[in-house]
Design goal:
Rossmann fold; 2 domains; eight-stranded mixed β-sheet; six-stranded parallel β-sheet; 16 strands; globular; disordered N terminus
């Protein structure tokens, strides 16, 4: 464990930072890629801060309990301590069992927090609303600045996925979560979010206009050596060298992939094999999507794959799909976009505002209906030069705006600035 003494500090040396994020892949998970909170923790530590990261022992991505490490306290790198909080398991992202898990973790956090020296600043991610409320309660009682990091638009996105009786049943939970988020946002010294739409949501819950430390900080993605090679590109797409579309992620209810599968069936029915769709991952919609694609040679499912195979699949693709439905479509600026841009893929998206702006800057195409989807795929298929131009632009935008190195540095600077500002105000 790192030194948490109350020695005199200069600059950022010794500033105590708490990070609360219970669902992210952890640096020591097998085959893990360090993500937003992990990158932030390491960046803060490199600048002299003492970081404690409170997270769940349950692996949200794999839906299973982490049996390793055995101990609840894990040193990641010098200056970063990870505290694992145990809770009951769940198998679905939206379920009573997950709600129970989040309540248990939040309650345990409040007990654990009292055992630690007082932090100088706390950053808590949304979701979960329960942990955000718990963090706000802890910080308010001790006059600690809280930064709310909005990663998903809970609970505003929920009602869009339900109709009729289901909507009526879920409404009390939405109201309850809204009260928790309003309480946390109202207590926050700063609100950051991974899209403009989510920041607007956060400010609405806070009931105030944007201030100095409220801003959009995208998820970002680690820099790669992968760049589009103009010499390794077909002059025209064909059955032997098709346009390669790819989707990577959990096959959840937020994703609108069925129209793409239907389009592949339509094209294949016309004898047009110049386009192929690869779906990488698994999830609740796995069986449904596979059933929809039965008999199609132009659609393939890989399941979850290792890092080397994933890298190969991405490198051999041309266009990355970020097609959403329901509530998340109004808010999302997902990590997939940055992953695709990092690898020099053109973007095909139906997401508004930030994602649409990315496409309109020349990185791909924005669509708002099934007919526009068909027209966009037709344009990609008929114009390889346009595809290559989009890929080159996407990579350039990534390098200037979306590298996780840039995002982590900006977020670390904000966290430390909020801590120093609070210390000055109370000093």
């Amino acid at each position: 464990m790192f030194d948490n003494s109350s020695s005199a500090r200069s600059g950022t040396e010794g500033i105590r930072v708490w990070l609360i994020q219970e669902a992210e892949i952890l640096p020591f998970d097998e085959g893990a890629r360090v993500m937003r909170t992990g990158n932030l923790a390491r960046r803060l530590a490199s600048r002299g801060a003492n970081v404690t990261w409170f997270t769940g022992r349950f692996n949200h991505a794999l839906k299973r309990r982490r049996e390793e490490p055995v101990h609840d306290l894990v040193q990641d790198v010098p200056g970063v301590l990870i505290h694992l909080i145990d809770g009951p398991s769940y198998s679905r992202n939206f379920s009573v069992k997950r709600i129970l898990y989040q309540h248990v973790v939040a309650a345990k956090f409040l007990i654990l927090a009292r055992r630690y020296p007082k932090p100088d600043v706390v950053l808590c991610s949304l979701p979960s609303p329960e942990l955000c409320w718990a963090a706000a309660r802890f910080c308010k009682r001790r006059s600690i600045p809280l930064i709310l990091d909005i990663r998903d638009p809970w609970p505003d996105m929920f009602l869009d996925y339900f109709r009729g009786l289901g909507r009526a049943i879920i409404y009390p939970l939405v109201r309850y979560y809204a009260r928790l988020v309003k309480s946390a946002a109202g207590c926050a010294s700063a609100i950051v979010a991974v899209s403009t739409q989510m920041l607007d949501m956060g400010m609405s819950y806070a009931g105030r206009p944007r201030a100095k430390y409220d801003r959009v900080l995208f998820l970002g993605y680690p820099p790669t050596d992968r760049k589009p090679d103009p010499t390794d590109f077909p002059g025209q797409f064909s059955e032997k060298s098709p346009l390669e579309l790819i989707f990577i992620g959990t096959f959840g209810h937020s994703y609108n992939i069925e129209p793409v599968i239907d389009l592949m069936r339509e094209l294949e029915g016309k004898g047009d094999m110049r386009c192929r769709l690869t779906l990488v991952g698994a999830g609740d919609n796995d069986a449904r999507w596979r059933a929809r694609a039965i008999g199609l040679r132009s659609v393939r499912f890989t399941g979850w794959v290792g890092r080397a195979e994933l890298e190969s699949l991405v490198q051999n693709s041309h266009v990355g799909l970020t097609l959403y439905r329901g509530g998340l479509a109004r808010f999302a600026m997902p990590n997939k976009l940055f992953e695709y841009c990092a690898h020099g893929l053109a973007i095909l998206t139906n997401l508004p505002q930030d994602a649409r702006s990315l496409a309109e800057r020349g990185a791909g195409l924005f669509v708002n209906s099934d007919s526009e989807l068909r027209a966009a795929v037709d344009r990609f298929v008929e114009d390889p030069t346009f595809v290559q131009a989009c890929r080159t632009t996407a990579r350039k935008i990534f390098e200037s705006d979306f590298s996780s190195d840039i995002v982590s540095e900006d977020l670390a600077s904000l966290v430390l600035a909020v801590a120093k500002s609070s210390a000055n105000n109370h000093g």
